Amino acid sequence: MSKPVALIVDDEPDLCELLAITLSRMQIDSESCGDITSARERLHSRDYQLCLTDMRLPDGDGLELVGWMQEQGLSTPVAVITAHGNVETAVRALKLGAFDFVSKPVDLQSLRKLVETALKLPGDGDTSSESGSLLGESDCMLALRAMIAKVARSQAPVHISGESGTGKELVARMIHAQGARADGPFVPVNCGAIPAELMESEFFGHRKGAFTGAVADKDGLFQSAEGGTLFMDEIADLPLPMQVKLLRVIQEKSVRPVGATAEVAVDVRVLSATHKDLRAMVSSGQFREDLYYRVNVIELRVPPLRERGRDVLLLAEHILQRLAGELGIAVPEFTAAAQDRLAAYHYPGNVRELENILERAIALAADDRIDADDIQLQQSRLPANEEGPEELGERLQSVERETIREALEAHRHNKTRTAESLGLTLRALRYRMQKLGLD
Length: 439
What we know:
The chain is of the alpha/beta class. Helices cover about 45% and strands about 15% of the residues. It folds into 3 domains: about 5-120, Response regulator (Rossmann fold), CATH 3.40.50; about 140-305, 3-Layer(aba) Sandwich (Rossmann fold), CATH 3.40.50; about 305-435, Helicase, Ruva Protein, domain 3 (Orthogonal Bundle). Strand 4 (about 55) and strand 5 form a beta hairpin.
C-alpha cells in the first residue's frame, strides 16, 4: 500500500524541513513549495492526503489557499499554521473550510495528532452507516444532510440550533460518525443537568483530596472524550464562571483538573446545541460573546417538523414500525384520514411529540388500522409564558395515570372491565399501564 503524501506550503526552509522530518517519521511522504501559485499547480497535478500551509506567504496568505481549495471542490484536508494566540485567524480558517489549525511555535505532539486524525477521514464517496438515520426528503432536510457531510470533514466547533424535539443530538452523532473521529468516543452531556458546584469537576476531573468526597483521581468529560467528540447539549444553561473556563479549554486545548497544579492536553472536538437564542443571550449579557464565537464557528439549524412538509408521514411510518417491533405486534396501517390529520398538524413538540402521538394511537386502535379518531392532538398552541410541549406531555400523562388508577380501583383491578369502562381494548389498556408505570 502506497504511503500517504502531504503538501507543505511555507517559504521558511527550516520549518519545511522540520515538518517533513516529522511526517517522514510517521511514514508520510511530503512535498513542499513556497507560495500559493506553486501550491495551486501542485494540487491540480496530483492528489494529496493532507496540506499544511503557513499564513504568511510571498503572494498572499494561507486563507486564500483554503478558500480556493473549497471553490475547486478539493477534498484534501488542509490545516493552517497560525501565529500563537491568533484566535481570530484560526476561526476564519475554520469558517472557510480548513480541517484544523496549528499554532506557532509548532508543537510536534499536537501536529502528530492532527495528522493522524486528518488521515482517518473517509474518502470521496464513502458513506457512514448512520448517514440515513436522519430521515426526510424535504429540501431543508436534504440541505441539512449535505451540510452534515461537509462539516464532518472539519474539526471546527459546530453549534446545532433548533427547537426542542427536532433531533439535535442525532445531528451531532451523525457529524461524529461521518468524520475522522468516528472510532473515538462520543460523549453527550446535558449542561443544564449538572449542579453548578459540580460542573468544574464533571468537565475537567479532579485529583484525590481536592475537596471533601474526592477519595480518588477522576477524569472529567473532556478526558473521557479524548480522541473523539464532546457534545454539550443545552450549552446556554452554563453559568458565566464556567463559560470562562470552557473558553480557555477550547482555545488552549488543555484542561486543569480540580486540585491539580498542571494542565493536561486534550484532543477533543466540541459540538454544542441549545433550543434557546444564543445571540439574544449574548446581547443581554447571559452568554459570553467570545465563547459564542468560539463554539459557533459553524452553525447548523435543524428545521422544526412543521417546515418539513410530507416528511411527517415518512417519520410516522418509521416510528410506527419501531414501536410495533417493541410491542411484538403487527405494524398497523394508517387510513387516509389519519394521514391527512398527521400532515395538517403543527407539532409544537416536533419529532418527540409525534412519537408520543403514535404511542397513544397504537393503544387506542381497535384493530390493525389507525384511523383519524385514534390520532389525539393538542389543537391549540400554548402562550409563550406557559408550559411547553415537554411539560404538557408530563401533565397529560399524570392525568391519564390517575384516570386509569381510579378506574382499576373502581373495578377491583379487573382489567377487562376497566378497559370496557374507559372505551379501550384490553391490549390498549395493558400497553398504557406499562408505559405509565402502573404494572
